[in-house]
Design goal:
Length: 497
C-alpha cells in the first residue's frame, strides 16, 4: 500500500515528454512547488525511486536525477538505506536580506578614489531599437545548424579527456585543437607551420591585445592605413603607441610612402589587412606585398598581418597570406577561425615564430588560464571530421548570391549616385557617395525609417564620403528592403541640405 504522502504526490506529478525541459527537472520543480504550498509536509519521506518510476512509467535513473537535483538545492536530504526526506522550505530570505540597513539601500554611482580613464577606449558602438540595421560585414547566424552544434557541444562536455584537462594543474603546451588548426591552416593557406607556431585566443582582438603588450613600449611607432580598423587602433593607443598613417589606394597601403618618410629602425611594427583592406576591401597587390616584406627586413620592423575574413572567397582562387612567403620571421599572422559558426563558437589565433608564441602563451596564461576547453574540442572535431569545410562551402554559396543581389540592387536603386567595386570576397561592400553628403544626417534620416546605420561604418573626411555596408547578415528580402530604406534616407538628406 502507498503511504498518504505518496498518494498526494502521485496525484500532482504530471510530466510532459514533449516539453523542452528535461523530465527530471519537471519532477523536481513540481515537488518544490508542492513543498512551498505545504502539500508535502516537512520531514515526510518521498516515494522510493523504483516506486515513483513505476508510477510515472519512466526510467528509475530519471527519478534518481530528480532527487539529486532537489538535494543539491537543499530541498531534500538523501539518507542511504533509509530514503529521501523533505527539508524545511527554502523560500524565506536570509536574515541579512530581511534587515533594512542604510549601507545596502543605495549603491554608489561613482568611486571614492581616482583611476585612469582612457578616452580612446570609449565604445564606438551604439544601441538601437530599430528592426533593421547595417553592420560592417558579419555572417548570418540563421544559416547555422544550431541543433547540430549544440549536440557537438554537449557530447564534448562528456568527454573524459576534457574533464581531465579541467582538473589538470598545468595544461599541455600543445592542445589537440592547436594540432588540428595547424593542419587546417597548412592545407588552406600554405603556411608550413608546426603546432608550436600557434596561439589560440578568444578573439582576434584578444590576439592583437596580447601581441601589443609584448611588442609595444610607450611612444613606439606603429604604422596603420589612413583608413584602418578602429578596434586595432584602440588597442595600439592603449599600449602607448604613436600611430602614423599610411595612404591607401586601390592597391592597398602605399608601401613606397614608408621608404620616403621613415628611416631604418624608427618603426616598431606595421598593422595591415592585405587580403581585403579594412574598410575599403581593396587587395594589397602582389608587387606591394613583396616590397613590404623586403622593406620590413631592411628597416627591421614587424608586420602584423590581420586576415580577418580569409574564409569568404567567391570568384577566384585567393591570394595566399604574406605569412606563407615569410622566410625571415618578420610577420605575425592573425586570423579568426569558425566564421561560418555562431559568434560564440568563433576563436582567434596567432601564427608566429616559436619564441614569440612561447611568450604570448605565458601572457595568455595570466589573463585566460583555463580557456574554453569544450569549445576547442568541438572545433577540433569539426576540422578532423571535415564538417567545417562542408559548412563553409554551403555558406559561401549563399553569401555569393547575396553579394550579387546587393550589388544589383545598388545599381538599380542608386544608379550613378554612388560608386563601388564588387568585392571578390568578404561580407561587406565599400560604397562612396558622389556628390558628397552628410553621412551623419543620412544616419539620422535612416533612423526615422526604422533603419540603423552605425557610426562606426561611416567614413567622412576631405577625401572620403563612404560607408562600409555589410550584406552577409541579410536575406534576399531584407537586402531589397534595406537598400530601398537607404535610398529614402539619401533622398531626404539631399532634400534637407
Amino acid at each position: 500500500m502507498n503511504s498518504p504522502d505518496d498518494s498526494v504526490l502521485f496525484s500532482i506529478l504530471q510530466i510532459n515528454k514533449e516539453e523542452s525541459t528535461s523530465v527530471y527537472v519537471q519532477i523536481a520543480q513540481q515537488i518544490i512547488n508542492a513543498v512551498q504550498r505545504n502539500i508535502i509536509a516537512v520531514g515526510s519521506p518521498l516515494p522510493g525511486s523504483r516506486t515513483l518510476s513505476k508510477h510515472l512509467q519512466i526510467h528509475r535513473n530519471t527519478v534518481v536525477a530528480a532527487y539529486e537535483e532537489l538535494a543539491s538545492q537543499g530541498w531534500v536530504e538523501i539518507k542511504p538505506n533509509k530514503g529521501t526526506f523533505v527539508l524545511h522550505p527554502q523560500n524565506q530570505k536570509p536574515k541579512f536580506l530581511q534587515q533594512s540597513t542604510k549601507w545596502n539601500a543605495v549603491y554608489p554611482k561613482e568611486t571614492g578614489f581616482r583611476f585612469h580613464q582612457s578616452n580612446h577606449l570609449n565604445s564606438p558602438y551604439e544601441t538601437t531599437n530599430t528592426n533593421y540595421s547595417f553592420n560592417d560585414g558579419q555572417p548570418d547566424i540563421r544559416l547555422l545548424p544550431a541543433t547540430k552544434i549544440s549536440s557537438w557541444y554537449t557530447a564534448s562536455m562528456k568527454r573524459k579527456s576534457v574533464l581531465k584537462k579541467w582538473n589538470a594543474v598545468n595544461n599541455e603546451s600543445i592542445s589537440y585543437f592547436e594540432k588540428q588548426l595547424c593542419n587546417y591552416l597548412n592545407s588552406t593557406r600554405r603556411l608550413h607551420i608546426l603546432p608550436q607556431n600557434i596561439l589560440t585566443t578568444r578573439s582576434t582582438e584578444m590576439s592583437l591585445y596580447i601581441i601589443s603588450q609584448l611588442m609595444i613600449q610607450p611612444n613606439d611607432v606603429v604604422l596603420v592605413g589612413s583608413l584602418s580598423n578602429f578596434a586595432a587602433n584602440m588597442i595600439f593607443h592603449q599600449a602607448g603607441a604613436k600611430l602614423k598613417t599610411i595612404p591607401v589606394d586601390k592597391d592597398g597601403i602605399d608601401v613606397s610612402y614608408i621608404r620616403k618618410h621613415f628611416v631604418k629602425k624608427s618603426i616598431r611594427c606595421l598593422y595591415c589587412t592585405p587580403h581585403r583592406h579594412y574598410p575599403t576591401t581593396h587587395l594589397l597587390s602582389a608587387e606591394r606585398r613583396l616590397e613590404l616584406l623586403e622593406l620590413a627586413k631592411e628597416y627591421e620592423f614587424a608586420i602584423i598581418e590581420d586576415d580577418f575574413d580569409y574564409d569568404f572567397q567567391y570568384d577566384i582562387s585567393p591570394m595566399m597570406p604574406m605569412a606563407s612567403a615569410d622566410t625571415n620571421g618578420m610577420i605575425i599572422y592573425l586570423g579568426r577561425f569558425g566564421q561560418s559558426l555562431l559568434p560564440a563558437f568563433q576563436t582567434g589565433f596567432v601564427v608566429a615564430p616559436e619564441n614569440l608564441i612561447k611568450a604570448a602563451k605565458n601572457y595568455r596564461q595570466m589573463i585566460d588560464k583555463q580557456g574554453d576547453l569544450v569549445l576547442e574540442q568541438v572545433l577540433a572535431d569539426m576540422i578532423h571530421e571535415g564538417e567545417i569545410h562542408r559548412l563553409l562551402k554551403k555558406s559561401i554559396v549563399v553569401y555569393k548570391q547575396r553579394r550579387d543581389l546587393f550589388c544589383k540592387q545598388l545599381e538599380l536603386v542608386f544608379g550613378n549616385k554612388i560608386s563601388w567595386q564588387k568585392p571578390l570576397g568578404g561580407l561587406a561592400i565599400w560604397i562612396q557617395f558622389n556628390p558628397t553628403i552628410s553621412l551623419t544626417k543620412l544616419a539620422e534620416e535612416a533612423l526615422k525609417n526604422d533603419l540603423t546605420i552605425p557610426k562606426n561604418i561611416l567614413y567622412q573626411d576631405k577625401q572620403n564620403c563612404a560607408i562600409r555596408l555589410g550584406f552577409g547578415h541579410l536575406n534576399d528580402e531584407e537586402i531589397v528592403l534595406l537598400i530601398s530604406k537607404l535610398k529614402e534616407a539619401y533622398d531626404s538628406t539631399l532634400a534637407s541640405s
